[in-house]
Amino acid sequence: MAKKEKDKELTRRQFLRFGIATAIGVGAVGAGITYLSTKDTTNGENMLRPPGAIANDDFMYACIKCGLCVQICPIDAIKLADVTQGLSYGTPYLNVREQACDFSCGAMQCVETCPTAALDFIQFKRVGEAANAKYEQEHPNDLDYNIIAVQLPAMHAQTHMGTAVLNTDTCLAAQGKGFKGAPRDANFKGVYASPEDAKKGLAPYPVNEHQFDRPICDICVTECPIGETAIIVENKIPKVLDGCTGCGVCAMICPTEGPSITIKKA
Fold first, then answer.
1. What are the residue ranges spanned by the domains of the chain?
2. Does 36 have pLDDT greater than 50?
C-alpha cells in the first residue's frame, strides 16, 4: 500500500475512533443529565433544609455544596443529598425522624459557617441584637449579663424550617394512652438534650437512654426545645402553635412506630 493511502487509512480509523468515543461520552453525559433531572422532579422543594435556608429556588443557586454545615453540626443532624435526589445532589437537608435539630450546639453554627448565605445569618443577627437591646433596657444595672444566653433563645425562635403536624388517629395522647420507657429502640442512633438537660449544661445523649413514665403521653410537648410558644397540651392533646420551628425533636422521639407527629416543610 502506498504511503499516501496508508495515511488516509490511518486518518479514517482515527476519525472513526474519535467519533465513537465522542458518541459514548455525549451519551453518558446525556444519560447523567437525564437521570439527575428526572430522578427528583421536585428540585428539592420538599426537602427539609437547615436553619436559615433561603427560598428553595434561590437556595439551589446559592448553595455551593461545600458541606461546611454538615461538618460543623455536633450531632450530625445535617446530611448531604445523594444522587437519587436529582438536582438536589450534594445539598444539605435534615431527616428529623433519624436525627432532629435540638439547638444544642450553643450557637447557630451551621448558619454562621455558610459562605454564600444560602443559610442566611442576617435574620438571626438582627433578632439577637434586638433581644440584647431589650434586655439592657429592662435591666440597666446588669452590666455583666451573658450576651449569648440572651441572644440564643431569640435566634432559635426565629428559625422556621417547617411546622409540626399531628396525626390524631395514631397519637397516643389523642387515644387517651400513656407511655412508659424509651421512645426509640436500642439500635436507634439519634441524640438530643431535653430542655432540662440543656439548663444543666448536659450534652445530647441517645434518645433510647431517655426514660419516660407518663399517664398520658406528652413527650412531644415536654421535650420541645422551644417550649410553650411552639407546642402545648390542650384538652389532653398536643397542639402545635405558630412558634413551631420545625426542628423535628417531636418527630424523632415520638414513640409510635410510624411517627404521629411529622414536619411539613415551611
1. 1-39, 56-157, 162-265
2. no
Q: Which of 20-24, 110-114, 137-141, 210-214 has the lowest mean pLDDT?
A: 20-24
Q: Which residues of 176-206 are buried (b: 16+ CB within 10 A; e: fewer)?
A: eeebeebbbeeebebbbbbeebbeeeeebee
Whole-angstrom distance, CA of residue 192 vs CA of residue 215 = 23
CA distance 15 to 9: 10
Which cell goes with 65? 455544596
- Distance separating alpha carbons of residues 266 and 252, to the nearest angstrom: 18
CA dihedral (132, 123, 196, 106) in degrees, to 10, reads -90
Find out whether 218 and 233 touch, Cβ atoms under 8 Å. yes
Asked whether the whole model's pTM tops 0.85, one would answer: no
CA 60 to chain centroid, in Å, comes to 15
Nearest residue to 245 (alpha-carbon basis) of 166, 163, 140, 123: 163
pLDDT at residue 41, as a whole number: 52
Judged on CB neighbours under 10 Å (0-12, 13-18, 19+), 220 is buried
Task: Say if residue 234's pLDDT is above 70.
Answer: yes
Quickly count helices (H) and strands (E) in the chain: 9, 10
Residue 9: which pLDDT band, with cuts at 50, 70 and 90?
A: low
